[in-house]
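Forum: Protein Structure Q&A
Topic: Joint prediction for protein chains with partners

I've read a bunch of threads here and the consensus seems to be that you should model interacting components together rather than docking separate models afterwards. I'd like to see that in practice. Below is the full input, 456 residues plus whatever partners are listed. Could one of the regulars post the assembled result?
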Amino acid sequence: MFLAFLKERGRLIMDLSSLLTCLDAVMAQADVAAETASAAAETLSDAAVTAKALIKAGGLIGAGICMGFGAIGPGIGEGFAAGKACEAIGRAPENAALLTRTMLIGQAVSESTGIYSLVVALIIFLTVR
Amino acid sequence: MEISAETWELIGRYVGAGLALGFGGIGAAIGMGMAAGKANEGIMRQPACQGAMLRTMLIGQAVGGSPSIFALVIGIVILFVKMPLSGLTLAAGAVGAGLSIGLGCLGSGLGCGWPAGAACDGLARNPGQSGKLTQIMIIGQAVGQTPSIFATVIALVLLYVPAALNVHTGWVVAGVAVGAGFAMGAGALGPGMGSGLAAGGAVRGIGCWPKSYGVTLRTMLIGQAVGQTPAIFGMLLAFIMLFALGGRAVGLVGFAKTLGAGLAVGFGSVGPGIGCGHAADSGAEWTARQPLHGAALLRTLLIGQAVAQSTAIYSLVIALVLLYGAG
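Posted by a regular:
Agreed with the consensus. Here's the joint model:
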């Protein structure tokens, strides 16, 4: 009888201990899961921050290249127009006013691609800031 | 793979010296060759003045070759001389200095070829005017050297002023140094060529019409001065990035900001420099032809140059927005 009682008690203890072991295991797994989750969250936010920084960096360099190379063309073209205007005034000084006006109109039109570059550079900058 | 500080230093020194001499010699060589070609053409037309022609050619080549001597000196300094920087900072400074002096001397050297060639041409037309021709050629070439002097200053600041680069850390050092190098180097490229074009036009004008010396000299100097402005923008931005940034630039974004600003002002000065020079070329030559209408020509020249400068101003504005804009 007593043996049976002991067996019962034993089984109960065994059950309890196995229950405790199970609980332990579950808690441990939960801990691990929590750690993984937080690590994943950190990695995700790191990756998110780095991606944002990369995009911003690319945008800033792009804006610089855009305005930098975009200023080459109008500079050379408008200078050429001014040069030819000087030559024309040298040949026919009495038309100086007309020649200057035509030069300014021509230069204003050739400025247009420079304005495009300026606008796009500002758009890029304001989009990534 | 871990790269030690000494390795970075050596990499930077070699790349910087390569940039300095690789680009710095191009312009002066082309310019000196132009002078030699025009000298031969002049001797073909007037064999009697070969002595004076050779002398004028050599003087023109000597003054026009000095940017390449600057580049050689700075290149040897980058390679061998001890500097108050170390590690990655030294590498970045060396590459920036190499870009600055290399691209800067390209423009000035190329520019100085045109007045030398035009002087030989004018000597063939008017052998008695060698004094005036040599004088205006040297003045024009001297003003055309100014951008390469700015470039030398920035290269020396990058190498020898530790306070400039040591405030920043990591990526940003590379951005500041390379950005300043591009800003001054490419920024001196256009105006150097432009000032040379202007001097070429003036010498060509005096060669054909030596009597208008005073008016032509004035127009040339004013035209060259306006054409130098983009180089001054480049130097201004280089100084701002080196000394006035404080803690605004950090990390990858700081690297991108400074590099982008340097590219914007650097390459943005190429076109306006060349264009204003071309305008001053015609202006000076036709002022020599028509000295009585010098005032009207100068007025149109200045208006035209002012409009041609506008994209250089846009570039400076974008660069300042990139550096100082919030975010």
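The first helix of chain A runs from residue 2 to 70.
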